[in-house]
Design brief:
The protein has 80 residues and is α+β, with helices and mostly antiparallel strands. The protein has a single domain, classed as Ribbon (Laminin), CATH 2.10.25.10. It is built from 1 helix and 4 strands. The strands form 2 sheets. A two-stranded antiparallel ribbon has the order 1-2. A two-stranded antiparallel ribbon has the order 3-4. A hairpin with a 5-residue loop joins strand 3 and strand 4. It is globular. Keywords: Protease inhibitor, Signal.
């Protein structure tokens, strides 16, 4: 009986983990959710012209090496 309960608990934990790892955070492809308020774009890929507010505002950022283009898709800087 204990083995059956252990299996059920393990199954529930596995399903919860799977659900958490596949949750839609609302970010486009090749992007992730972060609390940094300034996202790199084709217009300012190095954030040299962007004034960021001090508050941490959760938003989407492109993955490393990518920036947002005008259509809000993550692309390599060379594609801007």
């Amino acid at each position: 009986m204990a083995a059956k309960q252990y299996f059920v608990v393990l199954l529930i934990v596995a399903l919860m983990t799977l659900g958490a790892s596949t949750a839609d955070d609302g970010c486009p492809e090749n992007a992730h959710w972060t609390e940094d308020p300034c996202a790199k774009t084709c217009d300012d890929p190095y954030l040299t012209n962007t004034v960021c507010i001090a508050a941490l505002i959760p938003t989407c950022h492109c993955n490393s090496g990518l920036v947002f283009n005008a259509e809000r898709k993550c692309v390599p800087i060379s594609d801007c």
